[in-house]
Fold these 2 entries.
Entry 1:
Amino acid sequence: MIERISHIFEVAASEGHGSIFTILFIGFLFGAIIQWARVDKFEKIAGFAMLEDMTVPKMLFFAIGAASIGLYFLIETGYAHYHVKPIMLGGLVIGAILFGIAMAIFGKCPGTGPVSIAEGRVDVLVGAIGGIFGGLLFTYAYPWIKPLMGPDYGKETLPSLFEGHETTVILLYGAALIIVSFLIPNIEYLDPEDKEESAEV
Amino acid sequence: MPRKISWLTGGVLMALLILFTFSIFGADRPIGASTYVPYFAGVLFDLDPQKYEYMAEIEKAGAWEGVMLLGAFFGALFFSLFVTKTFRISFIPTLWKERKNSSVLSRLLWSFFAGFIMIIGARLAGGCTSGHFLSGASQIAVSGLIFGGITMATVIITGRLFYNKKGGEK
């Protein structure tokens, strides 16, 4: 078992996507930002499903809008590369529906789950165990699932559909998401059990 | 240090982290999370990548995301203990008590069920909030936009159907 776990680090270190230290550092910041903004909370994620809290869509829209413009310039200058996922339409549609149902009930997602477990949420640990079994079933059933995931419409991006106007499309997209993030009403559910208050910065 | 940051500060920091991760100074790859779960399940139950096609397909991404999320666990542990001071052992979220029920068993069973279908959904779609939303939509990938749109709509519809109405019984 210990051997298999240490193998995880060997594989990760040999991928050419950062040293173990870099990957752990990225993870540390990822967990810290999510925990600091409290967006791993059930009240923030399921709270969005109940329209009691809009922190998650506001932060998501802003982060994506700002990152999309920054990423475009990083890629243009050669400091980053595109890593676009294919449009596997069947898998995307069915997967997104199952994912959305689960997100509303669980109030977590795969990235915020470990953050919530770290702050002592036992219900999330139980959900993670459910996820392990879901993953196990998926791996076992993959030969039968795989044909249902298509058709594959390729690794398209929206700007690539507007040839010659890529920069305009990207800037408009980024600006639109940032504007939307400010327009979404600033509703927040402050959890009394956490003695939560509105953030000042 | 402030005990909590706003959606805007959080959004700025998250955008910078996405850019750092994508850049050649960081990991030269997108942020992702959900692949790690079936990968870790395979490691726990010793599934041989030569026998299980999916294990072989996800080994690299699964291992990277596993290490990344280990870092996330410690980042969150550190912040919940020393910065936000919100660390506490709990079984039911406050809002669940307000809008669903006060049964620990009910919350744990629903969590298990939701975790189960969440990973099946994420792997069918080929990504989750991190891979499709944060990373996919930042590249304006059509796959990420489709995932984001359908997920958001399903979240709102499920929220309406699954929970009790505000301030009263169903």
Entry 2:
Amino acid sequence: MDPLIHVQDLVKVYHLGEIEVAALQGISLSIGKGEFVAIMGASGSGKSTFMNILGFLDQPTSGTYLLEGINGKDLSKDKLAEIRNQKIGFVFQGFNLLSRTSAVENVELPLIYAKIPTHERKKEALKALSQVGLEQRGHHRSGQLSGGEQQRVAVARALVNHPSILLADEPTGNLDSKTSVEIMGIFQRLNEEMGITIIMITHEPDIASFTKRNILFRDGRIMDDRKVTPKGLS
Amino acid sequence: MDGSWMTGRSPQKGSHREEEPPMTTFFACLRIALRALMVNKMRSALTMLGIIIGVGAVVAMIAVGTGAKNRIAEQIANMGSNLIIVLSGSSTSGGLRFGSGTVPTLTVEDAEAISTEIPVVKYVAPNIQGVAQVVYGNQNWSTVVQGTTPEILEIRGWPLASGRSFTQQDVDGAVKVCLLGGTVAENLFGGIDPVGQIVRIKNVPFTVVGVLASKGQSTWGQDQDDLIIAPLSTAQKRLFGTQLPGMVRSITVQAKEAGVMQEAENQITELLRQRHRIGEGQESDFTVRNLTEVMSSAQESADVMSLLLGTIASISLIVGGIGIMNIMLVSVTERTREIGIRIAVGAKSRDILLQFVIESLVLSLIGGIIGIGIGIAGTLILSSFTEWPTLFSIRAIILAFLFAGSVGVFFGFYPARKASLLNPIEALRYE
């Protein structure tokens, strides 16, 4: 079976005025369906750049990246937006919810751009919220929710469009350790029970230990890539 | 909005990713825009204020301008169309020059000559006039008495409110009959019907045969109904004419149509110069005036005025638009992260563009509606205090509204475009 994600010799060079900064210097890897991957590394190791490319938010300087066989290289901005909308769910460190908007409406957001009719949107959004255990809090404004709840809303938003992959950039970075474990529990459950492919950036080995595969980045290269046995919830 | 507007659609089976009519995106954008505007109520209201004042000013100014134009048009219709007035006077006697109308130089024969010899002329009415005391019973009133021929009523398009006009026979026989203007009838008779009654003008008894319909004020604010019309001959012989028999003060001429006004004017001048034996290079002892021209220039200046008022008001509307642009730019910067999120989850440039253009459009249209209300209210207040004639035209109001909308789109477009071109990675990082 073809891997879900196929990356070959991926290079990304930033031009900061005269200086060239090579953020990625030849990354090659494959990620299969149903994997739960943690990408680790110090800041500046290129893991965020890699994540942006995986999420079709950025284009590599050279090399190939295929998601389900789709190469984003020559696609228009709008086409990329469509792929993000339909195949990728994002969870950010800072939650990135619309603060004066209710949880349901936040979750609905990708469906609006997928042009789903209003009543179906509501139904799907509530379903996604129930998957993260927040169906009761749907009508609260996101600003009134706790950090952990906000991140769960963000996860629901990432799930609502049934994406191929869920990309999480330091999802526990703004949370205390207890809430972090809660979020990781949700990720594990989504991965185990629903078979959702999750790729997560973290710099905390503790958090990475909840995943099934750890990839270590340093200076734009993969230093280590190994399967691990995920830590169960205590 | 709960989607019930789409109930006519058959329920979708299978994939929910099927394309939906683009209207849903529009309504979704509209809802997002309304939400964003509600969040910043104070700011939205202040932004709208510019448009409100602009549209209000446009509506009020156009109402004032249209009112003025309308009144002038009414007065032109009242005065009668295609009018030429020949005034006597402007003579030179012993080195002294007199102004028009001071010395009677025109005669009844001149009027007859104009009528018979110039084919483009339709009606001719020679006039003399003077102020006289009119008495009925114990009431008296001082008014203008105009001696003329029955044609004057045709020329001025003046209907009778009651009774009949006097006839050519009355003129020929110098019969002592007269027509009363509305103001005179009101002042002498109050509620009684004056027709058939006898009034004394300068102590001469005249039978009232008719009352003129009311015409109201002239362009110059004169009461046009404050007069008495009597047969020319009667007025000459019984009232004013004793010192210079056969002389008239002015001749009112109506040309057959607007196109021959100039021709009629030239021919009258030529004919009268001949009849008065005025040599080449000598000054005429009469003046020919094209009244329609005078009036249409008055109308032109009213047009220019309303254009000017409308333009000034439109400028304030454009300034309001700049206010919208300003606030939208601030709003786009403030909401950079929100825009980043939307782009990340799949909003296309077009979606973001639409969202912000709609926001600006909603601002300007709501401002436009309030502005129309305020413009109408302001105009009504203004006209009740100043008695200026004002007239609302639906067309102008719709135009002002559409103008406000296009100002919104025009000035909202640049900020919206800026938003739609944001880089999502940078936008998501924006604090």
